[in-house]
Amino acid sequence: MKKYFILSMGLSVAFAFTSCKSAVTAQDVLKQESKANEATVEAQQELIELAQMKEQYSVDGVKAEIKILKKEKSKIDKDIKSLEQVSESTAEATKGLLGDLKSKSASISKKIETLEAQPKENWSESIESINQSIQELQKEVNVITANINRTEE
């Protein structure tokens, strides 16, 4: 009796283990792999676009700042010319103002030169890093799905 009980328990356990199947099928895994690959490609594209936008934004920002500074310098230079043409009687009173304007003009010229000499932000390293990270993610997805495929064979 004890033998039959143990035998029947053993068969029940063996039957339970063999009848338990994973709820995840190979087809489910392939769908998930496809979704993961699509998501990584989409993320890669978005990150690259973002890096390129940032690069363009920095260029446009510098150009806009230079444009503003050039307008300000032009206005100051016009004021300087106007003050230099003032009669000598009022020239003494305007000497200090004229010196301040010339100083501001020189300062703005230096800012413009600095901005124009500033190298364009280079985001190619970031883009390359994004591409490498995406490739690593895709490799990981492939490794995971390959392991699952091997266990089903």
What share of the residues does DSSP label as strand, in percent?
A: under 5%
Mean pLDDT: 75
Please compute the radius of gyration using only Cα atoms: 37 Å
The largest sheet is: none
Count of separate DSSP helical elements: 4
Number of strands: 0
Question: Poorly predicted ranges (pLDDT <50, ≥5 residues)?
Answer: 1-5, 7-11, 13-20
Order of helices and strands: HHHH
Helix content: over 70%
* Ends apart, CA distance between termini: 40 Å
Q: Which word captures the global form? A: rod-shaped
What can be said about this structure in brief?
The protein is mainly alpha-helical and 153 residues long. 89% of the residues lie in helices and 0% in strands. It has helices at residues 2-19, 26-84, 88-117, 124-152.
List the helices and strands and how they pair.
Elements: H1 2-19, H2 26-84, H3 88-117, H4 124-152
Helix pairs in contact: 2-3, 2-4
Q: What characteristics describe this protein?
A:
rod-shaped; about 0% strand; 4 helices; about 150 residues; mainly alpha; disordered N terminus
Question: Can you characterise this structure?
Answer:
- The chain is mainly α.
- The chain contains 4 helices and no strands.
- Helix 2 packs antiparallel against helix 3 (88-117) and helix 2 (26-84) packs antiparallel against helix 4.
- The chain is rod-shaped, with a radius of gyration of 37 Å.
- The two termini are 40 Å apart.
